């Protein structure tokens, strides 16, 4: 599965790339237009030069005599000539030429107007009589150099501004997406029991429907969970009185019934009523665990709480508990919630563990709780399902299948983890339920 993409990074790089491509396209278009304009300017200068030089050259030729051998005109001051020219007679013979004029430049047959060779742009003009014509040549390299220098002057600022634009876009998108980060942080900071409405301030119009939809969903979940908890608690509470009354009547029937099938049947009813009473108590514990009020305002020492829970089991006939307590185990876990969690983990170990082996109950100084019992190894596929409600993983022992679900609900509401291991760490068999604080 690919890593999630960053919206801010995608926006920043997308905008900068789009702007960069648009700038480059604009520069390319400007360079093409500029080249056309430069060609027009250079052609106009080339023609103007030819028109001005031709009368002067004809005068020079007439003054020196048309039969004078062709000569080169030396510049007043030595310099590199950007334009070269030749003046021809009616027969095509060169009568006058500039200092740097080369024969190969004017090798092609002259014709009026513009023409382009491999490396020169040439303009040809003639006198009205047609006795003389002039060819003025300009190296194409001059035009290419002018075009490149002008285009470079346009591109260079873009190359400098592009990184600055990227930084600016990153800063701008980070500022504008700050409400998104705040909304994400508010959602991520909630635990499973916190279904209060989101109150992120400064959200843009496009984000308001998302926040409102999440709030409506959480409100619906809160109502559903509250209705479920209320039903569970009310049902368990309402069952306690008739179950207790039925159990009392059954026990009285056992005492009055003679030995035989009637008393045996009454004892069976008593066992089922006791199981129903335990189930009601478990349902009350479950509603308390899912209620979310499992954290105390200030840390409390859990060692005395666990000592009392284990003492209750011992008095009830569970002598095989082996308790290990630290000097102190401060925690913000509510003492009542911790007592419910510990009672369910210990009861699970006593119910499903080997009855001939002790159950080790260990509380760490960091408020971690470990309950280890001997017994057969639980397969991994069944181990993952043990925290579900009414899941017994094929066990035939008495129990409602709610103990680990209650413990997992309390651990989750407290921000801790309930880790189940089988075989128990350091053993070849057994089962361990460990509460690991956040």
Secondary structure: elements and pairs:
Layout: H1 7-64, E1 71-73, E2 84-88, E3 94-98, E4 113-116, E5 120-126, E6 133-139, H2 140-176, H3 178-188, H4 208-256, H5 261-289, E7 295-301, H6 303-315, E8 321-324, E9 330-333, H7 335-352, E10 359-363, E11 369-373, H8 380-383, H9 403-413, E12 417-421, E13 431-436
Parallel strand pairs: 1-3, 8-10
Antiparallel strand pairs: 2-3, 2-6, 4-5, 5-6, 7-9, 10-11, 11-13, 12-13
Helix pairs in contact: 1-2, 4-5, 5-9, 6-7, 7-9
Structural write-up:
It is an enzyme of class 2 (transferase). It catalyses: ATP + protein L-histidine = ADP + protein N-phospho-L-histidine. The chain has helices at residues 7-64, 140-176, 178-188, 208-256, 261-289, 303-315, 335-352, 380-383, 403-413, and strands at residues 71-73, 84-88, 94-98, 113-116, 120-126, 133-139, 295-301, 321-324, 330-333, 359-363, 369-373, 417-421, 431-436. With 438 residues, it is of the alpha+beta class. It has 3 domains: 7-164, Beta-Lactamase; 190-227, no CATH class; 293-438, 2-Layer Sandwich (Heat Shock Protein 90). A 6-stranded mixed β-sheet has the order 1-3-2-6-5-4. A 5-stranded mixed β-sheet has the order 8-10-11-13-12. Strands 7-9 form a two-stranded antiparallel sheet. The longest helix has 58 residues, at 7-64. It is rod-shaped.
């Amino acid at each position: 599965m690919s890593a999630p993409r960053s919206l801010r990074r995608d926006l920043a790089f997308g905008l900068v790339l789009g702007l960069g491509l648009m700038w480059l396209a604009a520069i390319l278009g400007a360079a093409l237009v500029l080249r056309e304009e430069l060609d027009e300017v250079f052609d106009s200068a080339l023609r103007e030069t030819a028109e001005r030089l031709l009368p002067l050259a004809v005068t020079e030729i007439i003054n020196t005599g048309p039969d004078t051998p062709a000569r080169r005109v030396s510049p007043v001051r030595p310099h590199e000539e950007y334009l070269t020219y030749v003046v021809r007679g009616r027969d095509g013979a060169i009568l006058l030429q500039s200092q740097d004029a080369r024969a190969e430049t004017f090798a092609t047959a002259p014709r009026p107007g513009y023409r382009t060779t491999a490396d020169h742009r040439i303009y040809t003009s003639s006198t009205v009589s047609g006795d003389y014509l002039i060819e003025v040549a300009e190296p194409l390299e001059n035009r290419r150099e002018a075009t490149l220098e002008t285009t470079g002057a346009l591109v260079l600022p873009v190359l400098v501004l592009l990184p600055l634009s990227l930084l600016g876009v990153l800063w701008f998108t980070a500022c504008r997406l700050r409400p998104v980060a705040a909304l994400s942080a508010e959602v991520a900071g909630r635990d499973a029991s916190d279904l209060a409405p989101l109150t992120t301030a400064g959200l843009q119009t496009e984000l308001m429907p998302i926040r409102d939809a999440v709030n409506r969903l959480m409100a619906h979940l809160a109502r559903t969970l509250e209705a479920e908890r209320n039903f569970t608690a009310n049902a368990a509470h309402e069952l306690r009185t008739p179950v207790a009354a039925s159990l009392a009547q059954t026990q009285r029937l056992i005492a009055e019934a003679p030995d035989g099938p009637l008393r045996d049947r009454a004892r069976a009813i008593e066992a089922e009523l006791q199981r129903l009473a335990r189930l009601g108590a478990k349902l009350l514990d479950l509603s308390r665990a899912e209620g979310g009020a499992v954290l105390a305002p200030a840390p409390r020492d859990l060692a005395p709480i666990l000592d009392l829970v284990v003492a209750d089991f011992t008095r009830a006939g569970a002598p095989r508990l082996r308790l290990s307590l630290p000097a102190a185990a401060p925690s913000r876990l509510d003492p009542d919630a911790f007592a419910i969690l510990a009672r369910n983990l210990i009861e699970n170990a006593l119910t499903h563990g080997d009855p001939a082996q002790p159950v080790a109950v260990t509380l760490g100084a960091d408020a971690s709780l470990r309950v280890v019992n001997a017994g057969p190894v639980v397969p991994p596929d069944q181990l993952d399902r043990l925290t579900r409600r009414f899941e017994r993983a094929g066990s035939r022992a008495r129990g409602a299948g709610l103990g680990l679900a209650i413990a997992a609900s309390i651990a989750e509401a407290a921000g801790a983890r309930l880790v189940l291991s089988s075989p128990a760490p350091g053993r070849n068999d057994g089962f361990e339920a460990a509460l690991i604080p956040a």
